[in-house]
Every structure is written in structure tokens, then in C-alpha cells.
Amino acid sequence: MEHPVSLKPYLACSLVLALVAFGCSASNGGGGEGRRAEAARSEAKGQVVKVTLSGDKQVPPVQTKATGSGTITVGQDKSVSGSVTTKGVDGTVAHIHDGPADKTGPVIIPLTKNGDTWSVPPGAKLTDEQYKDFQAGNLYVNVHSAANKGGEIRGQLTPGK
């Protein structure tokens, strides 16, 4: 005995919809949804800034052979992540500060140490005002030492470079 409602049209319709969906994805090189998701993740990731630290960037400048380099990322949601690695300095503390290149400024994010690498702690975020300062290039990273308590090496966070 046949059911009053046949499943054949529903199955055919589902098959057509599946083929259309696959065709749309395949027609743009495949993985259209994957690329959109990747673009969204990239946008959420925010601005990635490479930073180089040296004594001559300190205020006032410091004579040292110490150096540092790293990457700091500031997300659209103002989240901050990343790290810097130093050479030639026994760092005691390191921070991200709010201040232009020619001035010192307050600490806004203390960094955590693991060997010669200083990392932004999980959950770090900028305030709206700090985010504006970041966009203007007015945040910096510096590493302090016993010999240079005010900071031995420094690097300005300059978005877009």
C-alpha cells in the first residue's frame, strides 16, 4: 500500500538543492564558505604589527647592545596578543605603554616572561582611548633591566608598517 504523500518529490528536491549549493561553491573555485569564514577570521584578527626594540628608541636613549623583535596583534575587538623576544639583556619586566615615540607613558599591559620571550597575557584588551592611541602609533613596548630600570630597549607599535 502506497502512502498518500510520496517521498520521491521531496528527495528529488533535496538532491537538486544539494547540487545547486555544491555548484555555487564549486563555481567560484570551491570552498566559497571557507574563504568567507577565513576572511572573517582575518578581519577579527585585526592589525598585526612587527616591532623592533633597541636602546636608541628609549627616552632618553640608552647605550646597549641589547635588541628585541616580535609581533603584536590588536583585534577589531581591541584584544591584544603577541610577544617579543630579546637578546643581550636580562630583562626584569616588560610592558606595553601608552605614549608617542618621543615621550614616556603609563603602563597599560604588563607582559609575562618565559626565557627571553615576553608575551601579552591572555585576555588583554585596550580601552577605546588606548585603541585610538594604537591607531595613531602612540603605543610602545619596552623591556626594563636592573641596569636600566626605566627601560633598556623600546619599540614603537606602528600599525600599517
Number of helices: 3
User: Roughly what fraction of the amino acids lie in strands?
Assistant: 25-35%
Instruction: Report the structural category.
Output: alpha+beta
Q: What characteristic shape results from the CA principal axes?
A: globular
Mean pLDDT: 82
N-C termini distance:
74 Å
State the low-pLDDT regions, or none: 7-43
- Domains (count): 2
Question: What is the helical fraction, as a range of percent?
Answer: 25-40%
Sheet with most strands: strand arrangement = 1-2-3-7-6
Instruction: Please provide the ordered H/E string of secondary-structure elements.
Output: HHEEEEEEEHEE
The major beta sheet can be summarized as:
5 strands, antiparallel
Structural overview:
The protein contains three helices and nine strands; from the N terminus they run ααβββββββαββ. The protein is globular. A hairpin with a 2-residue loop joins β6 and β7. The protein has helices at residues 8-27, 32-45, 128-135; strands at 47-54, 67-74, 80-87, 91-98, 107-110, 112-114, 117-119, 139-145, 153-157. It has two domains: 8-41, no CATH class; 46-157.
Task: Give a short overview.
With 161 residues, the chain is α+β, with helices and mostly antiparallel strands.
What's the topology here?
Elements: H1 8-27, H2 32-45, E1 47-54, E2 67-74, E3 80-87, E4 91-98, E5 107-110, E6 112-114, E7 117-119, H3 128-135, E8 139-145, E9 153-157
Antiparallel strand pairs: 1-2, 2-3, 3-7, 4-5, 4-8, 6-7, 8-9
